[in-house]
């Protein structure tokens, strides 16, 4: 992720003709409720490889971009090409769920080598409050999207997660609900529900000082290696984007998450 990864609606409005905007809501929302003018619709389910979840354990030793819930390089390239997105575009993604689905889109794009990526802070509602919406869907010219090897990949497999459990310089972060955490989590993990970082009223991120205070209280500090997991890697996408926006440089993304961990009988704790 790059700097300034989380951007405001005003930031987007000033650059609307210079960026590619991707709306990851369902098509009925995109068409029926309206969208950011010029935004293309790439629904969340179109880049979510649900079948891959059951195979993540078998493929965890292969290219992480083809494991777990990522769609696969060819599928991703076709999807982006049909939407008129080029690999060098400045992309701003949004949803209507505090950014968690849009964040998953951005992490997927990063996995396939896209670098200029941004999340709209406050989701679609932040745009609707102050700016004009559109009901007209653009007709983008298809592109040949180039999948690239990222300069740095945050994706880690099970062995690296196992090593982090006993590493005092690492912290395992479970981004699920507290009740899920209590039912079972990775040994030594701390629980930080991804929504703790979001302001319920604005639907955007809490102020930076408040974010840093929350993270510090959970011992999630920039000097440590932060290893993120949830169930199927959706919720950690949002936390990953937040940490990237705060300048955390050593963040690991366990794509297989708890689905992969439990599939091979990894140890589970049930106490905080």
From TrEMBL:
<feature type="domain" description="Rhodanese">
    <location>
        <begin position="166"/>
        <end position="270"/>
    </location>
</feature>
<dbReference type="GO" id="GO:0004792">
    <property type="term" value="F:thiosulfate-cyanide sulfurtransferase activity"/>
</dbReference>
<keyword id="KW-0677">Repeat</keyword>
<dbReference type="InterPro" id="IPR036873">
    <property type="entry name" value="Rhodanese-like_dom_sf"/>
</dbReference>
<dbReference type="InterPro" id="IPR051126">
    <property type="entry name" value="Thiosulfate_sulfurtransferase"/>
</dbReference>
<feature type="compositionally biased region" description="Basic and acidic residues">
    <location>
        <begin position="56"/>
        <end position="66"/>
    </location>
</feature>
<protein>
    <submittedName>
        <fullName>Sulfurtransferase</fullName>
    </submittedName>
</protein>
<feature type="region of interest" description="Disordered">
    <location>
        <begin position="41"/>
        <end position="72"/>
    </location>
</feature>
<feature type="domain" description="Rhodanese">
    <location>
        <begin position="15"/>
        <end position="136"/>
    </location>
</feature>
<dbReference type="InterPro" id="IPR001307">
    <property type="entry name" value="Thiosulphate_STrfase_CS"/>
</dbReference>
<dbReference type="Pfam" id="PF00581">
    <property type="entry name" value="Rhodanese"/>
</dbReference>
<dbReference type="InterPro" id="IPR001763">
    <property type="entry name" value="Rhodanese-like_dom"/>
</dbReference>
């Amino acid at each position: 992720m790059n700097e300034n990864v989380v951007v405001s609606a005003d930031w987007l409005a000033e650059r609307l003709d210079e960026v590619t905007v991707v709306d990851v809501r369902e098509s009925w929302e995109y068409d029926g409720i309206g969208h950011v003018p010029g935004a293309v619709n790439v629904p969340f389910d179109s880049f979510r490889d649900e079948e891959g979840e059951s195979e993540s354990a078998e493929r965890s030793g292969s290219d992480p971009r083809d494991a777990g819930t990522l769609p696969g390089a060819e599928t991703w390239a076709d999807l982006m090409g049909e939407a008129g997105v080029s690999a060098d575009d400045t992309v701003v993604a949004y949803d209507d769920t505090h950014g968690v689905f849009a964040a998953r889109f951005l992490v997927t794009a990063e996995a396939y080598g896209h670098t200029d990526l941004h999340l709209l802070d406050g989701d679609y509602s932040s745009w609707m409050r102050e700016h004009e919406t559109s009901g007209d869907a653009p007709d983008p010219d298809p592109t040949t999207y180039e999948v690239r090897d990222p300069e740095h990949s945050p994706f880690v497999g099970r062995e690296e997660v196992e090593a982090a459990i006993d590493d005092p310089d690492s912290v395992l972060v479970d981004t699920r609900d507290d009740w899920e955490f209590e039912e079972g989590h990775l040994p030594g993990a701390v629980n930080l529900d991804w929504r703790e970082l979001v302001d319920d009223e604005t639907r955007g991120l809490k102020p930076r000082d408040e974010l840093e205070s929350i993270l510090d209280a959970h011992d999630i500090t920039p000097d440590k290696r932060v290893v993120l997991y949830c169930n199927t890697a959706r919720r950690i996408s949002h936390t990953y984007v937040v940490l990237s926006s705060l300048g955390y440089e050593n963040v690991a993304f366990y794509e297989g998450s708890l689905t992969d961990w439990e599939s091979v009988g990894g140890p589970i704790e049930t106490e905080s």
